[in-house]
């Protein structure tokens, strides 16, 4: 994601503050709403951890006491420049009550069925983004792909070929699995170029128009 341009923000409208809506990048759940001034956002950008400004507490680092920090993966201003959407990877609950979100527990279908496949591509892309933000760390398959350009491009070509064979054979089940593999490897392949699922969606939207 592009770095936040603080000069685009209208701090004057809110008496030196802008509203910050904090969202879990993995689940899409809104965790909390708070405020930040220029100093808080500068600290956020510099440290990669969410900082806020409270009229009562002053400048504060989320999770400094509780350990429930919020690692920042994106800061997006709204059209008026008085609100910022913070996309974070939370280390624990956002609310002081111990709940994940300050808006309470949200009832979701996956709590009844065990999993919800809505938004699976967004969660996958968010996981890849987190791995990419930690270069040289971790032993996961995704981390290995991100660290090795030749390996990830080789796997991308292999998965495309395997999908083509499955389609040629008329094997729907195998084609489905190979298509899933290809989508995963595609998202990994473009991530080091700074390309996200949102960018791909935008390209498709332009073609639709």
Structure in words:
With 209 residues, this protein is α+β, with helices and mostly antiparallel strands. It folds into 2 domains: 6-90, Ubiquitin-like (UB roll) (Roll); 113-208, MazG-like (Helix Hairpins), CATH 1.10.287. The protein is 42% helix and 18% strand. It contains 7 helices and 6 strands; from the N terminus they run ββαββββαααααα. It has helices spanning 38-47, 109-113, 120-132, 141-147, 149-169, 172-190, 197-208, and strands spanning 18-24, 30-36, 51-54, 58-61, 70-77, 83-90. It has a 4-stranded mixed sheet, with helices on one face. Strands 3-4 form a two-stranded antiparallel sheet. Strand 5 (70-77) and strand 6 (83-90) form a beta hairpin. Mean pLDDT is 87; it is low at 107-115.
User: Beta-strand level of the residues, as a percent range?
Assistant: 15-25%
What can be said about the biggest beta sheet?
4 strands, mixed
Helix percent reads 40-55%
* CA radius of gyration: 20 Å
Number of domains: 2
How many strands in all?
6
Choose one word for the global shape: elongated
Write a brief structural summary:
This protein has 209 residues and is α+β, with helices and mostly antiparallel strands.
Properties at a glance:
209 residues, alpha+beta, Ubiquitin-like (UB roll), Helix Hairpins, four-stranded mixed beta sheet, two-stranded antiparallel sheet, 7 helices, 6 strands
Annotate the secondary structure layout.
Elements: E1 18-24, E2 30-36, H1 38-47, E3 51-54, E4 58-61, E5 70-77, E6 83-90, H2 109-113, H3 120-132, H4 141-147, H5 149-169, H6 172-190, H7 197-208
Parallel strand pairs: 1-6
Antiparallel strand pairs: 1-2, 3-4, 5-6
Helix pairs in contact: 5-6
